[in-house]
Specification:
Layout (H helix, E strand, L loop, with lengths): L1 H11 L9 H13 L3 E6 L4 E7 L6 E7 L3 E5 L2 E5 L4 H18 L6 E7 L7 H7 L8 E3 L28 E4 L3 E2 L9 H13 L16 E2 L7 E2 L2 E4 L1
Parallel strand pairs: 3-6, 3-7
Antiparallel strand pairs: 1-2, 2-6, 4-5, 8-12, 9-11, 10-12
Helix pairs in contact: 1-3
Amino acid sequence: MSRVLDHYHFLHEIPELGFQEVKTSAYIAGQLEQAGIKVTRGINQTTGIVAEIDSGVPGPVLALRADMDALGHVIDGVACARHTCGHDGHSSVVLTAAQELLQEGAIKKGRLKLLFQPAEELGAGALAMIEGGALDDVEMILGFHLRPLEECQVGQATPAVIYSACSTLEATIKGVPAHAARPHLGVNALDAAVQAVQAINSIHLAPGLTWSVKATRFLCDAGVTNSVPDEARVV
């Protein structure tokens, strides 16, 4: 437990955005190489890493996968990166698993690949790794995501596929511009967008479902305060 916590504490202090995980990938690769594990850096010209433990005996090729990037935030008006999605924990667990499995000699047959993926939050890192050949010989890949206590208790795991992917729908609402002193002559796209968001929020799903629907971005700006906006975007 101390080893995984040491990795976690280090990675938590160096959050980096997608495709910018320079310090993160360097630390992970360095730890793997120090343990005697073969490492390939810069997968597909990214910060992605593929490491491998070869038993020397023919057999299946399995893979463990973790993401490395942090989320972007604006705190007190300053843009920054923070590990608020748990990717530092994911990388720490897979890194520790690799070290422990090698130390225990647990890989008796075949090969185990360790994939450390960049840019999960950008929705582009997995494809970059795949296009870089990271999965070419992999027969089975395992990944996981840390969950809040209300969904999964400490020491427990669930086989359910939760938040493994998402579909994004972006809607552009067109209105008719008008002077703010004569709003009746226009169609306020902002008003329509607000109603759309409220309608989305009124979709009540069973709490046991592993998916949800929500609005995450709202973009509307007429450029001035005395004009009715004629366009709004909801994501």
